[in-house]
Design goal:
The protein is mainly β. It has one helix spanning 83-87, and strands at residues 2-14, 17-38, 41-63, 68-79, 98-110, 114-135, 141-163, 166-171. It is built from 1 helix and 8 strands, in the order ββββαββββ. It is elongated and about 65 Å long.
């Protein structure tokens, strides 16, 4: 696997707002050759695939005060299949790269003794590589692409500083 990537990030603050954006470009040349055990038999294998990904992200933070903020972000990410996805594809179908569009909204409040964070996210996938529940002949787990899927969630975190040396914290 040969990879070249570049990344640029911009931050801009204006009054109570902070804007940020970043862009990543990834180029992957993925190839292998040689003898592999596939379904109990030795087979000559050769694979060469290239991927070109553009992964942008943008966000906005509003500062109610130095202690309290709300934020939101939008991002697109792409990821290539791993070696085993190519070596033992489910149903002989060549795996595709997966793409995620991620949206997040959150709230943070921090004082000298108390911290509270909440985050809501929605991850919308295209061609997500998921586990099939099957195990291949070598004992590895198999994955396959699913055309559309999503994850929706809520994250909560809180902490309270009881003393200089003791803090109680938790997350869900």
């Amino acid at each position: 696997k040969s990879e070249v990537s570049s990344y640029v990030r911009v931050n801009y603050a204006f009054r109570k707002f902070s804007f940020y954006g970043d862009m990543q470009y990834r180029f992957i040349d993925y190839s292998y050759f040689g003898t592999s055990e596939v379904n109990g038999a030795l087979q000559e294998g050769r694979e060469q695939t290239t991927f070109s990904f553009f992964n942008p992200k943008a966000g906005l933070i509003y500062n109610f005060s130095t202690r309290t903020q709300v934020y939101g972000s939008l991002a697109v990410g792409n990821r290539e299949p791993v070696r085993d996805d190519f070596r033992q594809p489910v149903g002989g179908v060549k795996p595709q790269s997966e793409q995620i569009a991620n949206t997040e909204l959150g709230f943070r409040h921090q004082s000298p003794r108390f911290l509270f964070k909440s985050n809501v996210y929605w991850m919308n996938y295209k061609n997500q590589l998921i586990l099939t529940g099957q195990i291949n002949d070598a004992g590895g787990y198999t994955r396959t692409n699913v055309a559309k899927s999503y994850r929706l969630g809520l994250e909560l975190e809180a902490a309270y500083k009881l003393s200089e040396k003791l803090t109680v914290s938790g997350n869900v």
